[in-house]
C-alpha cells in the first residue's frame, strides 16, 4: 500500500494522481489513481509486484494540468513464502476462476450484441456513462439552442474537422426572418469516444456566448439522437490560409499582393473579433490564418476554434511529449513558460499579418520546429516580406515586442488603422459598438523608476544603442518630421504603445531607418532626436482568462487535461 498526502495548495481541483514505479533498472510502469480511490485509501495499492527493491514517484493532475513529480521513495517486496498447501488450493481455485471467466465472457458478449442491435434500431436516444472523476460538469442538457433534426438538410462535404466531417446544408428557422439558411454543419465521428463527444458539445457551448460580427456565429445544436450536429454560420470562401493561397499566380516567381487597403481591412476585422474575445475574458491560443474564415463578401472572421487542426496538422508540433503546439505562431513567453494571455494572441496576430503579406507562406520557412523555438526565445524576428508595405510591417513589429506588456492591445491596433477601414466596419464592428465603451482616462505615470523591473529583450541579444521613439503607423514607414515627433509629454488621447527598448538590428532583420537613425529590433521605430521613453499607465495584473482549449467559464467545464499515461 502506497500512501501520500494531498498537495497543500493545488492549482485547481485535483482530478487524479499518477504513480510511476520501477523494479531496479527495469522500465517504468505507470498507474492512475482517481480522486475517489484516493479518498477511500488515502493512497493506492500496487498489485502484482515481484520481489525486489522498488522506487516510486507520485504526480497530481488538476484542472490546470499535470503537476511535478515527488521525490522518489523506496520500498522492498519480499519473496512469497512457500506453503505445502498451495498446490491443493490451486487445484480448487483455478477451475473456479476459469469457470467464472467463461461465464463473464459469455455475459459480456451477450450485452455487447444486444447493444449493437439496439443501436441499429435508431431509437434516437444516447445512453452514456461518464466517470465523474474526469468530467466535473453534468451531461449536456438541451436548451434554447436546440434545433430539431428534421429541420436540417445536408448537401455536400466541405472538409474534415477536428471531430468529424463538416458539411454544407440548409437549416430552417435558425435565423430570424429567414425561412431557410445556408449553414455549415459539423459532425462527430461515429467512432468518437464519450470524452470527444462531450468536448464537441462543450466547444459549441463556449460559442453560445459570442455575438460579434467578426466571430463565426453558432446557429444551433442537434444533441438528440445520432449523430450529434453543431450548426454554424457558413463561410463560403473557406479558411483565410486557403483563400490567400488561391490568390497566388501560377508559374510566377514574384506574387502580386492585394491592395494595402484590403490587407488593412482584413487586419482590422481580425483585430475586432479578437478584441471582442478579449473583452469577454477569452484567450484564443491558436490565432492563425488557418483559424480565420472568409465569408461570401470577403469579411474575415475568427473561426470556430479547432475546425482546421487536422487539416493543417503540419503547422503543429509536439514539444516534449505534450499536446500539439502551433510553435510558429507562439510568443516567446508562451514557448518558454506556457503562458497564454491576450498579449500572446497579439503576437500571433502579428504572424497572421505576415501570412497576409506573403499570401500564406509558412512562417520561419527553412527552419525546423526546434530551431524556431530557439530563434524566437532568443529574440529574433521574421524578416520583412517582399513587396510588403512599410505600414503593415510596422504593425507587425509592434505586435512582436519581446516584452508582452509593451505590445499594443487589439483595441489600440484598431484605433491606429481605423481611418483606413471601410465604412461598414463602423456599423458592424465591436470596436464602435455600445458594448465597447471607452474606459476612463488615466493619468500617465511619468516615473521612469517604475520601468526598471520590466524585462524587455533577452540579454543575449541586446546591444547598447540609442533609445528610439515610434513613428506614425499610417505613413508607410516614412520617418515623420521633427514637428510630429512624439515626446514624453504626449497627451493621453494618443494611443501609446509602451516603452521601446534599445537594440541594434539582428542578422536577417530588415531595417526601416535611414542612415544615421537608430532602429529598434522589436518595434521597427526610428528616433532622430535622442533618447525618448514613452510610458503607459501603470500595468495592472491581468484578470484571469478562460482558455479556449481548457478551463472554466461561467461554471461550464471545457475540455480537461488528461495524463498521457491514462
UniProtKB/TrEMBL annotation:
Compositionally skewed regions (Low complexity) per UniProt: 495-516
Biased composition (Polar residues): 484-493
GO BP field: glucose homeostasis; insulin-like growth factor receptor signaling pathway; positive regulation of MAPK cascade; positive regulation of phosphatidylinositol 3-kinase/protein kinase B signal transduction; regulation of JNK cascade
PROSITE patterns referenced in this protein's UniProt entry, alphabetically: FN3 (PS50853), PROTEIN_KINASE_ATP (PS00107), PROTEIN_KINASE_DOM (PS50011), PROTEIN_KINASE_TYR (PS00109), RECEPTOR_TYR_KIN_II (PS00239)
Gene Ontology cellular component list: axon; insulin receptor complex
Boundaries of every Protein kinase domain copy: 152-425
Segments traversing the membrane: 88-112
Main location: membrane
InterPro entries membership: FN3_dom, FN3_sf, Ig-like_fold, Kinase-like_dom_sf, Prot_kinase_dom, Protein_kinase_ATP_BS, RTK, Ser-Thr/Tyr_kinase_cat_dom
EC number annotated for this UniProt entry: 2.7.10.1
SUPFAM superfamilies named among the record's database cross-references: Fibronectin type III, Protein kinase-like (PK-like)
Domain Fibronectin type-III: 1-80
Keywords for the protein's UniProt record, in alphabetical order: ATP-binding, Cell membrane, Cleavage on pair of basic residues, Disulfide bond, Glycoprotein, Kinase, Membrane, Nucleotide-binding, Phosphoprotein, Receptor, Repeat, Transferase, Transmembrane, Transmembrane helix, Tyrosine-protein kinase
The name this protein goes by in its record: Tyrosine-protein kinase receptor
Organism encoding this protein: Eleginops maclovinus (Patagonian blennie)
Species classification: Eukaryota, Metazoa, Chordata, Craniata, Vertebrata
